[in-house]
Amino acid sequence: MDTRFIGIGEVSDVPSVAVVVDVMRAYTVAAWAFARGAERIVLAESLDDARALKERHPDWVALKDGPPTPGFDAVNSPALLRTVDLRGRTVVQKTTAGTVGALAVREAGLVLCAGFVVAGATAELLRERGCGDVTFVVTGEDGRAEEDLACAQYIAALAAAGDGPDVAGDGPDAAGFLRRAADSRAAAELAQGVREGAHPDDVALCLELDRFPFALVASQEDGLTVLRPTAPPAGGERA
Ligand SMILES: O=C(O)[C@H](CS(=O)(=O)O)OP(=O)(O)O
Ligand SMILES: [Mg+2]
């Protein structure tokens, strides 16, 4: 597997396969939304688009980062979302980095969105689809966010571990990657209450490795970029 790691601003072509990483917090939140029963997540281009979608579909759940905001139903916090009943609901998500990263590569042949909570399933799907060239979009801090870069590198190492003839090779040790994320600027800002719309448990929830057994696949549906959970086939596990 050939990999490259780029920031959102460096996206200049249409990758064949893109993995868009936002650990804190967009794709941890998205995974929790599915765990709470959401049917799909529409990734909105702008706050105005998110508001317009909500106005057109009052039953949809509009979610944005930052503080609670009129016109929106939820904030970008996994801890605040984990008790919300989202069964059968469509969520509209707009965040500063994560959703922007996915929209930048929406034309790619395969778009996966990821954080540590879905790292294993994401790597498994990359392996199962036989992905050769994979572009990792490191969404935070112009591609330098340590929590996103660590997660991207972990998924790449995990996906590559089953590559080639030596399929019995051990996968990477997650501990060092998780430590880098725990020591990141984003983690510190969340812990110190710098980021609004947060809960004290957010960092811990963002660092839960493989909390969920599904990957997050984004595709185009009726002109919208839509995220859905996809479980790798049961037979796809490495020997
Ligand atoms: O909600 C978050 O943690 C961030 C907000 S910001 O980038 O720190 O302003 O959004 P995300 O897109 O989930 O990184
Ligand atoms: Mg982020």
Overview of this protein structure:
This protein is α/β, with parallel strands linked by helices and 239 residues long. The protein has a single domain (2-224), classed as putative 2-phosphosulfolactate phosphatase (Alpha-Beta Complex). Helices cover 33% and strands 21% of the residues. It contains nine helices and ten strands. Strand 9 (215-221) and strand 10 form a beta hairpin. The longest helix has 16 residues, at 146-161. The two termini are 19 Å apart. It binds ligand L3UKIRZJ and magnesium ion. The site of ligand L3UKIRZJ has 12 residues, from loops. Ligand L3UKIRZJ binds next to loops. Its cofactor is Mg(2+). InterPro entries: ComB-like, ComB-like_sf. It holds the Pfam family 2-ph_phosp. It comes from Kitasatospora terrestris.
Helix coverage percent: 25-40%
Q: How confident overall, as mean pLDDT? A: 94
Termini separation comes to 19 Å
DSSP strand content: 15-25%
Number of domains: 1
Secondary-structure-based class equals alpha/beta
Q: What is the total tally of β strands? A: 10
Q: Which value, in Å, is the CA radius of gyration? A: 17 Å
The CATH architecture designation is Alpha-Beta Complex
The unique ligands bound to this protein are: ligand L3UKIRZJ, magnesium ion
Put simply, the count of helices is 9
> Could you list the spans in which at least 5 consecutive residues all have pLDDT below 50?
235-239
Largest sheet: 10 strands, mixed
